[in-house]
Design goal:
The chain has about 80 residues and is mainly beta. The protein contains 1 helix and 4 strands; from the N terminus they run αββββ. The strands form 2 sheets. Strands 1-2 form a two-stranded antiparallel sheet. A two-stranded antiparallel ribbon has the order 3-4.
């Protein structure tokens, strides 16, 4: 592992649309576009898209932040 490496072990999803953990779930397998803040829509990630992951765990008033990681989708 090196600084900047990104690891993922899968998604943790909840039962409601706002708690889905992957683009595949959010877009119902590419059938339902996901609206972005700028008005664009995506069913899958595209070349040039930037993905940012942030996480915080909280329990009994204690919050632990896991920082932020970003990456840009590059063409094949």
């Amino acid at each position: 592992m090196c600084v900047g490496d990104l690891m993922a072990s899968g998604t943790i999803s909840g039962p409601e649309a706002g708690s889905y953990g992957s683009m595949l779930e959010l877009s119902w397998g590419g059938k339902e576009p996901v609206r972005l803040n700028d008005g664009a829509a995506r069913t899958f990630l595209e070349d040039g898209d930037k993905v940012t992951i942030r996480a915080v765990a909280a329990q009994e008033g204690v919050r632990v932040g896991f920082g932020e990681v970003s990456g840009v989708i590059l063409g094949a």
